Amino acid sequence: GAVVSQHPSRVICKSGTSVKIECRSLDFQATTMFWYRQFPKKSLMLMATSNEGSKATYEQGVEKDKFLINHASLTLSTLTVTSAHPEDSSFYICSARGQGASWVHEQYFGPGTRLTVT
Amino acid sequence: SQQGEEDPQALSIQEGENATMNCSYKTSINNLQWYRQNSGRGLVHLILIRSNEREKHSGRLRVTLDTSKKSSSLLITASRAADTASYFCATNSIGSGSRLTFGEGTQLTVNP
User: Fold this and answer.
1) Residue in A4, A46, A111 closest to B99 by CB
2) Residues 6+ apart with CB under 8 A from B68
3) End-to-end CA gap in chain B
4) Do A93 and B107 touch (CB under 8 A)?
5) A43 at the B interface (CB within 8 A)?
6) C-beta of residue B47 within 8 angstroms of C-beta of residue B75
7) How far apart are CA A107 and CA A53, in angstroms?
């Protein structure tokens, strides 16, 4: 199956700093990547959809300037949490899907990144 | 917004027993998918059922879909301690492209 990695797996940062999380598709070209946020014992909330080479589409209520998404290549998308605050502490998960009709309904998920803002 | 509701929220059974989890949704869908998540880890895709399908099997998993009731169920037969995890349904709604909307999840504990 397709493999998606995330880096780092865990990060602790201080309030006011920015943190970058990488999402990579290792064995396929990801035309679309999705970023989710998950609070403890809760479901996944879609934050944004990013298509390679174009601006990300953010879900209602998600601040574009706070959660910067870049999808500069077919194998890499990054999420930067800017000026992080303790309430941004969460589990961030990406998923990716490839090109072609066979990919229409398939998404592969990364292992997640645990962000703790102190 | 989360449209899926799952019940039960938590389920505790003994090894060997069957586990049934239910999911309800509100929109018209292209397909419904079930995922598994071990604590603090990413999601593993289990099974996808299309809107024109009523039942699907994969190993010890059986998924049903009733589009008239906008509901789905996931049955795990002969459960094992290793099945302990959270299980989420996710719907791909018509007109949403490939976006998924996740349910609240069921925490399954299988006791040895």
Assistant:
1) A46
2) none
3) 37
4) no
5) yes
6) no
7) 19
The one-letter amino acid code at A18 reads: S
Q: Taking phi first (over 0 means left), then psi (-120 to 50 degrees means alpha), and beta for anything else, what does residue A112 get?
A: left
Q: Considering only CA atoms, which of A10, A26, A41, A14 is closest in space to residue A112? A: A10
Q: Do B107 and A105 make contact, defined as CB atoms within 8 angstroms?
A: no
Q: Tell me the pLDDT tens digit for each residue of A63-100.
A: 999 999 998 888 999 999 999 999 999 999 999 987 76
Which one-letter DSSP state was computed for residue A9? S
CB of A115 closer than 8 Å to CB of A40: no
Do A51 and A68 form a contact (C-beta atoms < 8 A)? no
Q: Is B72 helix (H, G, I), strand (E, B) or coil?
A: strand
